[in-house]
Specification:
about 500 residues, alpha/beta, Rossmann fold, ten-stranded mixed beta sheet, multifunctional enzyme, EC 4.2.1.136, YjeF_N_dom_sf
Length: about 500
């Protein structure tokens, strides 16, 4: 995964090491703090020019130092600025102590802050490094600001949000805007942290990007730059069989729609052929509702084994509307040598014995993609789901390694994790995706990409992003049918595609 700088996600600990590396390399650490604080002041003046007062809440560490610098810059700009401190400011050390002296003004205890009409709050209490629940004084300030309806500009991260997991540690400010430095943190993208940040601005304070890149691990924000090179491309020699064959298993006659949504999405994702495999009367129902998608009668395991004798049957989607039970388990295990997207009923069918599924796909190249929502995840990984010490990324990575599969942990902040330790957080999904059938479409997109030979992690990451992009195309009044019809995989670059590059983040 080749990550460009603007897709980096650094844990708070990694960012602290970047700061230390910058200081060790001879950079003026106080100069970096000055640039950070002045960027906050500039954002405050730009976004809240009508403020009657800037109330700067300064914490006991370097985040507070940024706040003191911002307060001094706002004062020089002629703005009414009051500072309120947490803890004993006389005990500040290093750059933060220097920043407080440079403020050269009074400050009052945080407990003395009373929101006034026209206040803009600059939250410089903790930032991304907080690892414990906020104390009562901070919780009271959060409540007072919320009740007063004052806009908040957060420095690095709204105080009370865990920079690694996005979780709220007791209480947290709801920011209108957040200014962070050099790179985003996972807590900026994971819920509820993403919502609490408001709009997010990443400001370059001058630390060499090589130092940031040195600490950037295998976690990134999902973006076409990460998987564009793996997207299937058409050539003059392309034909339908070279573009791959996707098979989607249909449920009974009364539950065929989910599979058809997956099949249509797989076709739109570029698979050369898509077959709906169904039994009995479901075959006729599907035949009456499809054109470019083929149908195949497939009753039981003997039929499936015969079907698998053709090596061109490369990728499968099992689960949407299929039904929970022995047949789903039997079919999934029969596909252990093929690329498989297991979704919905397919996942739930293994709740009593997930190890059987995980063991079947343990050898060789990763070829299993699991797409659980929160409830399905808890059925397959009950211990991880119950572990409150782990964030969503950590749970997904642990589950992926255990399952020998790529995990798509679905939600507004979907996390895609690979057994090899790579992970991305997706951010382009609009709220309109919360509609029946959208997960079936996602399974089909991923299946269609797998059928064309895309590696599992890249196919899943691309599928999730394209799913969000399709929802944006469908705009309002979104249904799953709209979503499937708006899937577009050809991203514009110098060699192919029709998607306007300006639409990419």
């Amino acid at each position: 995964m080749r990550t460009k700088a603007f897709h980096f996600l650094l844990s708070p600990q990694a960012m602290a090491r970047v700061d230390q590396a910058a200081a060790s390399s001879g950079m003026d650490s106080y100069g970096l703090m000055q640039r950070a604080g002045e960027a906050v002041a500039a954002a405050a003046l730009k976004r809240f020019p009508g403020a009657l007062r800037y109330a700067v809440l300064c914490g006991p560490g370097n985040n507070g130092g940024d706040g003191y610098v911002a307060a001094a810059a706002l004062h020089r700009a002629g703005a009414i600025t009051n500072v309120f401190h947490l803890g004993e400011p006389e005990r500040l050390k290093g750059d933060a102590a220097r920043a407080r002296l440079a403020w050269n003004g009074d400050s009052e205890p945080l407990s003395a802050y009373q929101p006034m009409e026209g206040d803009v709050v600059i939250d410089a209490l903790f930032g991304a490094g907080l690892a414990r629940a906020v104390d009562a004084a901070v919780a009271r300030a959060v409540e007072a600001v919320e009740q007063a309806g004052c806009p908040v500009l957060a420095v690095d991260l709204p105080s009370g949000v865990d920079g690694l997991t996005g979780a709220v540690l007791g209480a947290a400010f709801q920011a209108s805007h957040t200014v962070t430095f050099m790179a985003k943190k996972p807590g900026h993208l994971l819920l509820p942290g993403r919502t609490l940040c408001g709009t997010l601005e990443v400001f370059d304070i001058g630390i060499p990007m090589r130092l940031v890149a040195g600490e950037a691990g295998t976690l990134a924000e999902n973006h076409p730059d990460l998987w564009r090179a793996s997207l299937p491309r058409l050539s003059g020699a392309s034909h339908k069989f070279r573009r791959g064959h996707l098979t989607v298993f249909s449920g009974p006659a009364s539950a065929t729609g989910a599979a058809r949504l997956s099949a249509m999405a797989g076709l739109k994702a570029g698979a050369g052929l898509v077959t709906l495999a169904a039994s009995g009367s479901a075959l006729l129902v599907n035949a009456n509702h499809t054109t470019a998608i083929m149908v195949k009668r497939l009753e039981g395991r003997e039929d499936l084994d015969a079907y698998l004798a053709d090596p061109r049957m490369a990728a499968f989607v099992l689960g949407p509307g299929f039904g929970v039970g022995d047949k789903a388990r039997d079919f999934a295990l029969a596909l252990k040598e093929r690329a498989l997207v297991l979704d919905a009923d397919g996942l739930t069918s293994f709740k009593e014995d997930p190890a059987a599924l995980f063991g079947a796909f343990a050898g060789g190249q990763t070829r299993l993609v699991l797409t659980p929502h929160e409830g399905e995840f808890s059925r397959l990984f009950p211990d991880l789901a119950a572990d409150e010490s782990l964030g969503k990324v950590e749970k997904a990575l642990t589950a992926a390694a255990r399952a020998h599969a790529v995990l798509v942990c679905k939600g507004a902040d979907s996390v895609i994790a690979s057994p090899d330790g790579r992970a991305v957080i997706n951010t382009n999904a609009p709220s309109s995706l919360a509609t029946a059938g959208s997960g079936d479409v996602l399974a089909g997109i991923i299946g269609g990409l797998l059928a064309q030979g895309m590696p599992a992690f890249e196919a899943a990451s691309a599928g999730v992003w394209l799913h969000g992009d399709a929802a944006a195309r469908a705009r309002t009044a979104l249904t799953a049918e709209d979503l499937a019809l708006n899937v577009q995989t050809q991203l514009s670059d110098k060699s192919s595609g029709s998607l306007d590059q300006s639409r990419l983040p």
